[in-house]
Structure formats: C-alpha cells, structure tokens
What does this fold into?
Amino acid sequence: MTRSSNPQHQPERGWARQEAREAAALIERALLEDLPAGDLTTDSLFGDRLEASSGPAALSGLGIVARCVARQAGCFCGSPIAEALFEKVDGGVEVSVRVGEGGMVSGGEVLLELSGPAAVILRVERVLLNFLQRLCGISSWTARWVAELDGLDAILLDTRKTTPGWRRLEKYAVRMGGGTNHRFDLSDAIMLKDNHSWILRKVGESSLGDWLATLRKGSPEAFLQVEVDSREEFIEALDVDAENKIDSILLDNFSTDELAWAVEERRSRAGCRLLLEASGGIDLENVRRIAETGVERISVGALTHSAPALDVSLELSEVFELEQEK
It folds into this structure.
C-alpha cells in the first residue's frame, strides 16, 4: 500500500521533509512577492543600515516583542512554517511557540511570541499572518467536520482539490485538524474515475474486469479504487472484485439510503473486504448521517477548497534596545 492510500493503516505524520521543502519554496515566493525592493516604510524608519539621507526620524537598533493572537476559536497549525520563515530572513528573531500543533485555542489566545529586531518582524508580518491564517483555517475547518463524526468509525478524508503549490501544507493542516489524507498525487494510487470509464465504455471492446487487470499489471502494489455513480456500476465492481482485488469503491453522490444499501450488499458478499467511500454532496448537516450508514471513508473536497481563514493578528507588547555588536 502507498503512503496515503490506505488511511486505516497510515501512521500519524507531522511536519516532514516534503512539507519543509514545499514551505521553503512558498516562503521564498511570498517574500519576493511582498518585498520585491524592500519595505519602503520600515526600511526608512527602522532600517538596519542607515544612509546619510535617512534623517533624524530613522530609528535603528530597536527590538520589539510581538504576539500572534487568535481572534477567534479554532485549531492551531503553522508553527514549523513560522520558524522556517524567520530562519530564512535570518534576522535574529526568537520564536516562542505557545500552542502545540493541532491544539484547540480560544479567541484571544496567544499562538506565538516573537522577540527581535523591529525591522525584521515588521517586514515579514503580513507573510507570517497569511501563512498562519490559511493553515489555521484549514485545520480549524477540518476539526469542525471531525467533531461531527465523534463516536463513529468512519474516517474523514481530504482530496486533491488544493491550492496549486500548497498541497503538502494544506494536507498537513488537514492532519493537524484530525482529518486523514487521501492520495497526495496521481502517482500515489490508482483511481479509476468516471471519465476513464466513460472513454473506455465508448470504445466498447473491453469490460471493467479487463481495465482492472490492466491497472493491476501496471502497478501491482498500488492501492486501487474504483469510482461508481449508480447501483448497477456498484454491483459490476463487486462482481469483479474477487478476481481483481479492488481495495475501495468510491460511491459518488449516493444518497444515504443508497449508501446503506451498498453497505448491506457488500456485507452479503462472503469474504468481501473492500472499503466503501462516500463522496459528493456532503456537508456539515449530513456528514454524520452518511457515516452512520456504515461506510468506512468519507472524502470532502471542501476541507481545503472552502476552508475560511482563521483571524490571526500581530499585537506588539514591548520595545527594547538591541544589544550592539562590538
């Protein structure tokens, strides 16, 4: 099985090398985007290097203490990227993490405390908050969905409906919110989707069993999932499962009654161990009812594509003189 394909056997994964690589690339792009030629305000008032024309208003050598504060309740995510950001700018800023990754926070709670040169903190303030608001937003939104499934066995999965370039970080945030990652990319697992089937059926010279045999031959160890959108297609997939060893059937836009029927139909097949996954038409109002049908997996694209940002602000609490190098 692949890393993300069989979530029931997927170990909890925190911030790993892949996330760090993606974060480094995003940080570099974000800094270039926001500081293409420096910070015209901060550089003049608090710049590290003062030119003769800076004038008497320029204040160098000032340090500040600043706190990233959650303005609303949620689930914290993003301390590794905050630390990586300040390592990148190399400004001597000390980052003190006040909340563990995946920890629930209340409105007004301090997430991070920063201490260091005023100029450095002010220059990257917006970049820092943009990262935190997005990641905390996804983890908080995911936590709301996970709470709806409390006490049930179904797991909540994300999808590949992610912001281009952000997939690893957004899926990391899903994990911090208590969700589980579906496949990370098209190389991660086999999924025979409706568009694949539509083309193959139009050709009309082969059957589902033939397609699955071809897929198994090409990637014998990969997790294999088949998407169906009708009872007839579901029965067809069940009929060929014994020979082709399907790992999961994705039930696309099935009603709760149809999902319950599918669970019973699967149960009636002696020795059938494939997993059933519900997808499509799922929201916070019906996700618990869907889980109660007995499906093992529920995939929700909204975890990433529709997560609202968590409101996080930077509040200053102290000004001090930096120690000057001799």
The CA atoms of residues 148 and 288 lie 6 Å apart. The two ends are 59 Å apart (CA to CA).
